[in-house]
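Q: My labmate handed me this sequence with no annotations at all. I'd like to see what the chain might look like in three dimensions before we decide whether it's worth expressing. Could you predict it?
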Amino acid sequence: MRAAITRSLLDSFASVALALLGLLALLGAGGCALTGGPGTIHRVDVCVYGATSAGVVAAIHAAREGRSVVLLDCDDWIGGLTTSGLGATDVGNKEAIGGLSREFYQRLRRHYERPEAWTRQKREEFRGRGHRKGEDAVWTFEPSVAQVTFAEMLAEANVEPVEFRIARRHGVVKDGPRILAIRSERGVAVEAKMFLDCSYEGDLLAAAGCEFVVGREGNAQYGETLNGVQVKNSKYHQFVTGVDPYVAPGDPSSGLLPGIDPQGPGVEGAADHRVQAYCFRICATDHPDNRVPWPKPAGYDPQDYELLLRHFEAGAKVAPWHPVRMPNRKTDSNNNRAVSTDYIGANYDYPTADYETRAAIVAEHKRYQQGLHWTLANSPRVPEKIREQFNRFGLAADEFVEHGNWPPLLYIREARRLVGHEVVTESHCMSRVVAPNPVGMGAYAMDSHNTQRYVDEHGHVRNEGDVQVKVPGPYGVPYGALVPQQKHATNLLVPVCVSATHIAFGSVRMEPVFMLLAHSAAIAAGIAIDEDLMVQDVPFDRLEKKLIAAGQILRVQ
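A: Here is what I predict for the chain of 557 residues:
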C-alpha cells in the first residue's frame, strides 16, 4: 500500500471560479480588522497559520523586522506542546539550537534564576537539564512559565494572536500557484504576501493543494532501513512474553481486546497508513498542597485496561509512565513500557479528519489516558508498589487551571508531512547525505513511537513501530524541506510539517527544532517579499548571511 496521499491544487475549475469570486467580494468589502463577520479582510505582509511554538517564533521575527504580521491561532492555545506539558525538551546536542529558539530557552533560564520562581522547592534541590551553574538556557520547565514567557515575547513584538481556523472548503484562494488569501470558517479572510504553515497538522499546506504524505513510506522508496513496518526493531516499550490478546483468554472466537489490530503487523519494511501514537503530556506533582487526585473519566471502560492488567500479571514490574522532574516538584510525564499513555492505534484518521472528528479523537484520548491513571492508582490487580507510587502523585493544581488541570493539547507527534522541493531522509540524519543549504540543525535520535498492536505467531500480543536510533551528530535540515513544489505553492513555507520521511521526521519533530526552522522560514519570507521572489528562488547565499546574523546555527564542528 502506498503511504502517499496527494491533494490536487483545487477541487475543480468550478471551485476556483467560486473562490475567486468570493475573494473579489471580500476585497470589495475593504477594511483590515482582525475580527469581524463574513466579508472582513485583513491585509498583512506575513500570515502565520498556527500559534504553536514555531508560529510564535515566526511571528515575532517578522514583527521585529518591522513587517505587518498576523498570528492565527487555530487551537485556542498559544505555544503548542511547549506550553501544553512538554517541559522535558528533547534537544539532542544543545549547541545546535540558535536564534530565537535559543533565546526562548535562555529567557526561561533567567526566570528560574529569580528566587521567587521557586515556590515549592529550593532551587538547589533541582537538577534538571540546564539548571546547573554556568549554563545559559534551561530545557526543563513548567508549562505556565513557558506560557508567560511566550506571552511576554509576543507583547514586546506587539503581536496579538487571532483565533482563526481555516475553512475546509474553499479555505485558500490562489492565482495559479500563488496564494492570495485564506478564509476562516466564519468567512473572515487574510490576504498576505507570504504564508507560513506552522500548524502540527499541515491544514494550510493541504488546503493550498500541496502534496503531502500520511503514514510510513516503505524502506525501498528512499533507500532507508528504519521506515515502514518495524517488527524486528520494536524492542522497547514491548510486552513481556505470554500476554493473551483475546477477550476470553485462550479463545480466539471471543474476539480481540480493544486496540489490537487484526490486520497487523504487515510486511517488514513495507509502507502503510499507520501513524505513531499520540498522548497528553500531563503535568503531575507529588507536592501534597498542589496535588489533585486522578480523575475517573465519564465512560470509563475497564476492558480498555485489561491488557495493562494482564501485562502485570504476566510479570511486568515497572510503573508504565516516564515522569521527568520539572521545577517545583512537578513532572512532564511521557509514555513508557508496553501499555502506557500512548493510545496506540486510535489516531490513524486524525491527520486528515475534519474538525469535529478530530475533536472526538482528542476526547477519546483524554478518556483513555485519564482512565489509565485512575486504574493505576486504584485497581487491586495493579502491583501494590505501583499503586502506591501513583497515589503519591496527582495533577498539578496550579497548571492548566481553566482546563481542569489537564493539558489542552494532544501531542500530535506526526500528521501530514509535506512532499516538498527536497525530502529529508534517514541518510541526512545519519550524515550520509549532507545538506548544502541548511537552515537549521536536527540532533535528536530517530524516534518513532509504536503504531499498532497485533497478535504474533505464538498467539500473544505485541507492539510494533517503536524505533530509537541515535544520530552520529547534528545534521543540517535543507531549505528545500520547508519549500513546497513550485507547481503547488510559491509563497508558502512549512517549518513544522516539513518534507521528511516518517523516520527522518522522528528526529526533526522536536519543539526547539520547529522553532529554529520557523525562524529561518520567517527570514526567507522576508527576503522573498523584499525581492519579489518565489520562495523556491530565494538565493541561499543571501539567506545564509541573514541566518548567521540572526544567530542561527547551521553547522556544528
